[in-house]
Design goal:
CATH architecture of the largest domain: Alpha-Beta Barrel
CATH topology of the largest domain: L-fucose Isomerase, Chain A, domain 3
Strand order of the largest sheet: 10-11-16-15-14-17
Length: about 475
């Protein structure tokens, strides 16, 4: 993941002690360096103590931010004292930045309620937020209203905010590839390109016939095909997979790589059945798994909003995501279920992944045409889930997010699989069904629901159901 860069505004008010601004600047720059976050901040000589207090300060700071606009991911407002709410809001307005904003305010010390040390940041934060709201800027708050930067509480706030910045920046510039038409039997994969585009998410399409023609035109001894073949063999054990099927995967992989590079795509969704089996003779799961493992997520069944969900989770955690079915109940436990796909999960989900064939598809398409899945069982651990869906009738984007956990409960079946425990699962399933969400859900081995809920609701204005039980 790229290093995060934050534009930092140190607030100050003239009749409060200037020394507090100096101390606040020192604290926050120390913390940012510790967490590997780059800062864009005015020099201490450019304004009084390097803080923002006046209209002239705002112009200087805004000019600096504008000069670094392309690399700034978010804005951090630090209030060592009450601060000047107009100077802060004017700085953001003049800079032209439209990025996430985090507002931090220092706590007062009961032993230092003197003229020399009193902060009043508790009150100043309310005024700053009031002005941000007046100016039309959405913003993020810390868990505690006032919090010292050099505490674990604020470190957690800042880590979450960095995740929000990554999600917002990534989705606002996302380029997704739709490879083939959705399976004819799956109306659930319908989506609105226009609603996604209104949020900055671009969809580029290609027909499978073009992909197959280019793949078939590649010679088996083409150096790029041979290199791709070796990469496939090194990715997971391929024992029992016919060499001819592996070569087909290698040729297809070269074509997909070229198309993604030519269109600067971040992620793809592929028509993974039945055309590819009937007209090309493999499953694309292994190639999709390899892309997801390289942080270029790939979704089944041309589920574009599904791969957008995978990408959002990946941006939040920095780890590969998977797209799965809410597939089976787990015995009589109302809070557990089985997640399944045949599958294209990234290998990092499994301790012992292996290449196999799609056993369910093989019953109608033939085993010889369905080699290329990645089979494995997900071990116990943390898990977040998310779903983005376009509600075309109402012209809105709906989402749901939540944290849960993978379990080690027994599960005797094939494919890519996991048992997951979701407190209040029946309530979640009722919400999914009542609101017309798809049967696919994106999952990621980390807890990031807080990050996604904040990014989706505050900065995109999407409808968010945050499942918390």
């Amino acid at each position: 993941m790229d290093k995060t860069t934050l534009a930092v505004i140190i607030g100050n008010r003239d009749f409060f002690p200037d020394q507090l601004a100096t101390e606040g600047r020192r604290d926050i720059l120390s913390l940012l360096a510790e967490m590997g976050i780059e800062a864009v901040i005015v020099d201490e000589e450019a304004t009084k103590r390097g803080a923002i207090e006046t209209w002239e300060d705002a112009k200087k700071c805004a000019a600096l931010f504008a000069a670094h606009r392309e690399r700034i991911d978010g804005i951090l407002i630090v209030l060592p004292n009450f601060g000047d709410e107009r100077g802060i809001a004017d700085t953001i307005k003049l800079s032209g930045l439209r990025v996430p904003i985090l507002v931090q305010a220092y706590p007062d010390d009961l032993d230092e309620f003197t003229v020399e040390r009193r902060r009043d940041s508790f009150c100043g934060k309310v005024s700053v937020c009031n002005n941000l709201r007046q100016y039309g800027y959405p913003f993020t708050l810390t868990e505690l209203h006032t919090v010292h930067p050099l505490t674990e509480s604020f470190r957690a706030d800042l880590a979450r905010f960095v995740g929000v910045c990554r999600v917002v920046k990534g989705l606002r510039n996302a380029r997704l590839g739709a490879i083939g038409a959705r399976p004819g039997a799956f109306n659930t994969m319908r989506f609105s390109e226009k609603l996604l585009q209104s949020c900055g998410i671009t969809v580029t399409t290609i027909d499978l016939s073009e992909v197959f023609a280019k793949a078939n035109a590649l010679a088996d001894d083409d150096p790029r095909v041979r290199e791709r073949l070796e990469g496939i063999r090194a990715y997971v054990p391929t024992g029992g997979i016919p060499p001819a099927a592996l070569l087909k995967m290698a040729r297809l992989g070269v074509v997909l790589d070229d198309w993604m590079a030519a269109n600067d795509l971040n992620a793809t969704a592929i028509q993974c059945w039945t055309s590819i089996q009937q007209n090309y003779g493999i499953n694309a799961c292994a190639l999709m798994s390899m892309m997801s493992d390289r942080l270029m997520p790939s979704a089944c069944e041309v589920d574009i909003t599904g791969v957008a969900s995978m990408y959002a989770l990946q941006l939040a955690s920095g780890r590969p995501s998977a797209l799965v079915d809410w597939n089976n109940n787990y015995g009589g436990d109302p809070n557990k279920c089985v997640l399944f796909h045949c599958s294209n999960w990234a290998r990092s989900f499994f301790p012992e992944p292996r290449m196999a064939n799609a056993e369910i598809l093989a019953t109608t398409l033939g085993t010889e045409n369905t080699y290329g899945t990645i089979a494995g069982r997900v071990p116990a651990g943390p898990m977040s889930f998310a779903r983005i869906s376009t509600d075309d009738t109402l012209g809105v984007i709906r989402t749901y997010v939540g944290d849960a956990r993978f379990t080690d409960d027994p599960l005797a079946t094939f494919g890519g699989r996991a048992v997951v425990e979701v407190p209040g699962l029946q309530t979640l399933m009722r919400h999914i069904c009542k609101n017309g969400f798809e049967h696919h859900v994106a999952v990621n081995p980390a807890h990031t629901a807080t990050v996604l809920a904040e990014a989706f609701e505050t900065y995109f204005g999407w409808d968010v159901y945050w499942h918390r039980q």
